[in-house]
Amino acid sequence: MTVAAIIVAAGRGRRMGADRPKPFLPLGGRTVLARAVAAFASHPRIAAIVVPVADLDGARVALGDLAGRVRLVAGGAERQDSVRRGLEALGASDIILVHDAARPLVPAWLIDAVIDAAAAHGAAVPGLAISDTVKRVAPDGAITGTVPRDDLRLAQTPQGFRAGILRAAYDAAALSAARGTDDAGLVEACGGAVRLIPGSSRNIKITLPEDLALAEALLALPPKEGGRG
């Protein structure tokens, strides 16, 4: 079974308010992009990595010696467009993982778990239970209801798929002009079943400056016992 990964790094990260794209920001002596790529480049089950980026030259600098381990391609206007370009650049593989470079602390055990679940079920997404109370809010800020949270999860990446399932979902989306916020949503939209597996609290998404500070703090902590943090 061959496994390939698409690591999406074409976003500008405007909410970060930085002077460069978010993947190029420093994190613990490396860039956000280099840390995300290193998690897959060092994984023994990953045979190929494609990285859609907005700035090819900047990405090479951000990756350093890892640049030779991946295929860089120009990303699209939106995440979905970038993943499609990544799919076009990939060769044949059995399982495809799609990961956001904005999650640079993804643990190896989670990559393994997603690969295994995708192979067994066709499509798999890691997710975390919601601990806070969820409110539904009107445009004017008025609370209109409380949403039961028992069956809600916060989806993470990498999301994993048998290659044929993911490619078919993207082909269907292109024909219907459908848009989705993640890859699993496109699979769901064309009738596919997706299995949710436990995610990792360490696998945070860096969106705001405080997220970068949290990632720095997490890097200073040892992994939880059993490696399931």
What is the compact description of this entry?
This protein has 229 residues and is of the alpha/beta class.
Written account of the structure:
The protein has a single domain (3-227), classed as Spore Coat Polysaccharide Biosynthesis Protein SpsA, Chain A. It has helices at 32-41, 56-63, 79-89, 108-121, 163-176, 183-189, 209-219, and strands at residues 3-8, 26-27, 30-31, 46-53, 71-74, 95-100, 123-129, 134-137, 143-147, 153-155, 159-162, 195-198. α5 (163-176) packs across α6 (183-189). Strands 1, 4, 5, 6, 7, 10, 11 and 12 form an eight-stranded mixed sheet that branches. With 229 residues, the chain is an alpha/beta fold. The protein contains seven helices and twelve strands.
Short descriptors:
alpha/beta; 8-stranded mixed β-sheet
User: How many whole angstroms does the radius of gyration measure?
Assistant: 17 Å
- Overall structural domain count: 1
Can you count the beta strands?
A: 12
- The computed structural class is alpha/beta
**CATH H-level superfamily:** Spore Coat Polysaccharide Biosynthesis Protein SpsA, Chain A
As a percent range, the share of helical residues equals 25-40%
Ranges where pLDDT stays below 50 over 5 or more residues in a row are none
What percent strand?
15-25%
**Main pleated sheet:** 8 strands, mixed
CATH architecture: Alpha-Beta Complex
Oligomer: single chain
**What is the CATH topology descriptor?**
Spore Coat Polysaccharide Biosynthesis Protein SpsA, Chain A
CATH C-level label: Alpha Beta
Shape assignment: globular
The helix/strand order is: EEEHEHEHEHEEEEEHHEH
Mean pLDDT over the residues: 93
Query: So how many helices?
Result: 7
Q: CA-to-CA gap between the ends? A: 27 Å
